[in-house]
Design goal:
By secondary structure, the protein is of the alpha/beta class. The chain has 12 helices and 13 strands. Bound molecules: pyridoxal-5'-phosphate. Keywords: Aminotransferase, Pyridoxal phosphate, Transferase.
Length: 411
């Protein structure tokens, strides 16, 4: 029987009533249809189960949203306590104030916080705040960077008008000349520069910032009155417990956080400097569920845990060991596998595999053994990944590598 028999039937039903069956980033087209799990029915720690009863040792962690592990007890208890009191009410709950204060304390640069649900909500809002503050139109971003699904940055652009991104211009990561060129070309009209802490393009190796990149961008932004927005949605809390600007050693003007902030509960925030407060109070920001208190309680607990436990150190260390062990294992079977990016969220590639065919085959075989490694997206380490999990993952990955080598030899 096929490993994904029940899942595929469910997907066939879904395709009749939901566009594409599963759409967006979890669509099967982003892995290899039929060779990866489609749905999840339960999750605990660093593992989840699909409808066919298969369990996976997970290295994607809800696309980064789950930092402590699925169902982390302290976070779940804090969420449950708040749920008892109330979640969606007519007014924000007092915990919103406590969370805002905590966020300012740990991120150490801003003077206000606003709340939303998804990363896209706050990245899109941040550029509106930058435009209102500066009275300028242009937004500069890095080619290939993902900042969500807003009209200004939607990756496909389908359904949007070209005009909606006519004031958005791309420069190249780590290329200060291409950045300076845009600043000069649109001198006096650049409202914002939006950057991630490191470059993680789709289907491409991650690239860390050169030592001078952020300090120079920071300096130019200050000189030119440009708002520097750090999109820390994906990397937040896996590089530094107080936000990735502290890992980079710079202060942004607006910091966008989401994903790991709620350890799976839907919450995103933008944190900003005093100079932007007036615009922040004017650019209308709201959503029916954006004041919900349960996600705020989860986020507050998450931040407290980050203060008490060596979470960031752990994900970095476990990632380092995972990448190194994987590389050695692959090498034993004649494959040159490299991990790029920070070890807490690495992106693996086989050398010479520009088409990603080998990577897809590898990850599909690994999935068949019960380990989930995404073939085209960076992976995420969690606090729940322990030595025994890594050892088990290596045993299973080794089976996949052996099969892969034998398959290639037979061809
Ligand atoms: C860097 C970055 N920015 C923004 C977003 C959008 O976040 P969301 O999917 O929560 O809207 C993502 C999502 O992956 C992201 O990785």
């Amino acid at each position: 029987m096929n490993q994904y028999c029940i899942s595929r039937k469910l997907f066939e039903r879904a395709a009749r009533v939901i566009p594409c069956g599963i759409y967006g980033h979890t669509s099967p087209v982003f892995t290899v249809p039929g060779r990866f799990p489609y749905y999840a029915v339960a999750a605990r720690g660093c593992r989840y189960q699909d409808p066919d009863g298969n369990w996976y040792l997970d290295f994607l962690c809800g696309y980064g949203a789950v930092l402590l592990g699925y169902g982390y007890p302290q976070v779940e208890e804090a969420a449950a306590r708040q749920r008892e009191k109330g979640n969606c009410m007519n007014h924000p709950a007092p915990i919103m104030v406590e969370l805002a204060e905590k966020l300012l304390e740990v991120t150490r640069f801003g003077s206000w916080v606003v709340f939303a649900k998804n990363g896209s909500d706050v990245t899109t809002w941040a550029i509106a705040v930058a435009r209102l503050t500066t009275g300028r139109r242009k937004v500069l971003k890095v080619a290939g960077a993902y900042h969500g699904v807003g009209a200004w940055c939607n990756p496909t652009g389908y359904g949007f008008l070209p005009e909606e991104r006519s004031h958005v211009h791309d420069f190249r990561w780590n290329d200060l000349d291409s950045f300076r060129k845009l600043v000069e070309e649109y001198h006096g009209d650049v409202a914002a520069v939006v950057l991630c802490p490191f470059h993680h393009p789709s289907y491409g190796r991650c690239i860390l910032p050169d030592p001078g990149f952020f300090p120079t961008v920071r300096k130019i932004c200050r000189r030119e009155g440009i708002v520097l927005v750090l999109d820390d949605i994906r990397a937040g809390f896996r590089l530094h417990r107080g936000g990735s600007h502290q890992w980079l050693g710079i202060e942004p003007d607006i910091l966008c956080l989401g994903k790991a902030l709620g350890n799976g509960y839907p919450i995103s925030v933008a944190i900003g400097r005093e100079e932007l407060r007036v615009a922040a109070s004017r650019v209308f920001l709201t959503g029916t569920y954006w004041n919900n208190a349960v996600a705020m309680a989860a986020a507050l607990e998450m931040l407290k845990i980050l203060e008490q436990e060596p979470v960031v150190e752990h994900v970095q260390e476990v990632g380092r060991r995972f990448c190194q062990g994987l590389r050695e294992l692959a090498w034993r079977y004649g494959f040159d596998l490299q991990c790029s990016g920070p070890p807490s969220m690495p992106f693996a590639t086989f050398s010479g595999d520009d088409s990603f065919f080998l990577q897809q085959e590898f990850c599909a075989r690994v999935a068949a053994q019960g380990v989930f490694l995404h073939p085209h997206h960076n992976w995420f380490m969690s606090y729940a990944h322990r030595d025994l999990d890594i050892a088990e993952a290596f045993d299973k990955i080794e089976i996949a590598l052996r099969q892969l080598r034998e398959g290639l030899v037979k061809r």
